[in-house]
Specification:
The protein has a domain of 48 residues. It has 13 helices and no strands.
Length: 271
């Protein structure tokens, strides 16, 4: 065995992946250079064995189990009630929603066509089915990754019933957390249809301080002024107190407070 052949085998065999062969041992006895290199490799492996295994920080386990609990809770919610049969992939959600809507429309048309004038009970049942289909399509579109699809979901929300709490909840989450300004603007307009709901008004008030876009801030301020909800006064005045507030937003808040009938107890900083 030559030195070149031995050196190719030394690192692998001394690393523990294979037992040291008789040929390598025989060569090491006769070759001082290869024997010295083998001893260096043995020393390296010995020192590596003395290196202590790193201990994870305590917060790693805490964060891991918190994330695991949140994931399990989410999975339990998805497996319960209506959502237990709902597909996980957004494309399948949208396809299923549109398919159900089409089936509902076709079934309703066939029932009315075959049986003549429908009774009030049949009409009520058909209306209920259609409401459920519109709700599914709206909720599915609002969950899409594409901003244009979420905008379609906001448009579909206009077909929802004014007392549809699931659609209302989805719209309030969208206006608070959506990353796209256009989607949030459209959502504020859609929430005006739920203006009679105290939940919708409170949701708009809570969403106002979380906005970073002056356009969305103005849209929410205008909606609150139109609703004349005096519960919005503290949130409006708190936003007005910020020295970095956009001048256009500041002006709209002043007009909104007058429209609500609260005036303003704050001095407006000079720009």
């Amino acid at each position: 065995m030559t030195c070149q052949q031995a050196k190719l085998l030394i690192a692998e065999e001394l690393g523990g992946t294979h037992p040291v062969s008789i040929e390598v041992n025989s060569h090491l006895k006769d070759c001082a250079e290869c024997r010295g290199e083998a001893n260096e490799i043995r020393n390296i492996w010995a020192r590596l064995g003395d290196v202590p295994e790193p201990e994870p920080h305590p917060w790693v386990a805490t964060r891991f189990y918190a994330s695991l609990d949140a994931y399990e809770q989410g999975m339990r919610e998805r497996r319960s009630g209506f959502w237990r049969w709902w597909p996980a992939k957004p494309a399948w959600q949208l396809g299923l929603s549109l398919g159900c809507l089409g089936v509902g429309l076709l079934a309703g048309t066939m029932v009315v066509g075959r049986s003549g004038p429908a009774s009030s009970k049949e009409i009520a049942e058909l209306h209920k089915e259609m409401t459920g289909m519109r709700q599914m399509v709206t909720l599915s579109l609002l969950q899409q990754q594409s901003a244009s699809e979420r905008l379609r979901g906001v448009t579909w929300s206009y077909r929802a019933e004014p007392n549809d709490m699931e659609v209302l909840g989805a719209l309030l989450r969208t206006v608070t957390t959506d990353s796209n300004v256009d989607v949030r603007l459209a959502t504020v307009e859609a929430l005006r249809n739920f203006g009679d709901s105290p939940i919708a008004r409170r949701g708009l008030i809570n969403a106002l301080p979380k906005q970073d876009s002056p356009l969305v801030q103005i849209s929410i301020v205008d909606a609150l002024a139109e609703l004349k909800d005096r519960n919005a006064v503290p949130a409006l005045e708190a936003l007005l107190a910020k020295p970095t507030l956009d001048p256009n937003v500041r002006q709209r808040i002043g007009e909104a407070l007058k429209a609500i009938g609260a005036g303003t107890r704050l001095s407006v900083p000079q720009q």
